[in-house]
Amino acid sequence: MRIAVVNNFYPPRVGGSAHLSESLAKGYAAAGNEVLVVTAAHPDAPADEVVGRMRVVRLPAVRLPRTRLAVNFDVAFSLRPSLPRRIRELLDEFRPDVIHQHGQFFDLTWATGLWAHRNGVPVLLSVHTRLESPRRLYQWVFRALDAAVVAPILRRYRPRFVVMDVQMGDYIGRRYRGAIAGTVAIPVGVDPDWVRGGDPRIVRERHGLGDAPVILSAGHVIPLRDRLGLVEALPGVLARVPDAKLVVVGGVYFDAFLQRAAQLGVEGAIVTTGAVPKRDIPHYLAAASVECHELQGFGFGTASLESMAAEVPVVAVVREDNFPGVRLVDRENVHLVPQDEPDTLADRLVEIVNDPAGSREIARAGAELVDKHFALETVLTQHLDTLTTMYARY
Fold this sequence. Notes:
By secondary structure, this protein is of the alpha/beta class. The protein has helices at 16-30, 83-94, 107-119, 136-157, 166-175, 192-195, 200-207, 228-240, 256-264, 281-287, 302-309, 342-354, 356-373, 376-393, and strands at 2-6, 34-40, 48-51, 54-59, 62-63, 76-77, 98-102, 123-126, 160-163, 182-185, 214-218, 245-249, 270-274, 290-292, 314-316, 335-336. It is built from 14 helices and 16 strands.
């Protein structure tokens, strides 16, 4: 097949969506397919490059101003008068059999979707981020954007949606009714081997951690993952494990947790690294006693699964049935805690740190769960089967 992969986020930009779309694109090419990746320009990457059976085209883009509404994220849009023509030229030349889009609210998604509608090409759409916020004003704005902008465009070409978890399935059904040609349940994929075998000494020396127990919190800090719950629990942790360190790995795009830490007098126990190269992630995982960042009930993403794959105990606020057909079980393969109960969270973190043998058994079971259901090879096969079926039906 000839597969076009579309995502405004693509390496060297970092993030779960970027890395998954890259891994899938490379996997499609390795399986013998011709692949065209269409993404937004990045100052550290060429505008056009060919690697084997895969071509990556990075279109000129403008970064959005870093505002609170955009959670200060590095968001680049290619929207300009010439975009439809450029997309038409690229896709007319490549003639894709199917298009796999990542992200529902990007201009490249909309432009390639409208091209697909005019040319009768099936589209698979992976929604990685829900337009939701715990803040009332932002939630109203996001709902309005979905209703007035995103949904009407999606209805024009009606993609088939990848449902990565039950919450995403509920969101898609609510927000994009009338735009859904079908759904397929495929979880987010991770590379278990990549996250294993890190060297903890690199991280401990870099940040002066010594032998301190490390509570790792992986992923960008945004309102949906604000780390406030962790900071609220930190006094209870430090009362029993005084040398514990909370290491936040990722860009800090929402710093309310640092302000709260100062109020509680625990800022000295927090290390923020900012965004780090992907190659360093295994070292941070190897240094961790426990990983925790999913505390607001908005799902269970790539960073959590990668931590489980590395045999790091993971603490989260998430439903047991978050993934269709896969069960997350408290104290069996993960640590599940209630939302907004800092004392309970502190107790669980201390328990994990003080019982490494018992925690290790749960962590091993978590790694086995990831190997069985979330390994990239398995997820890649599911995507290829879906794309092949879509192509055959057109």
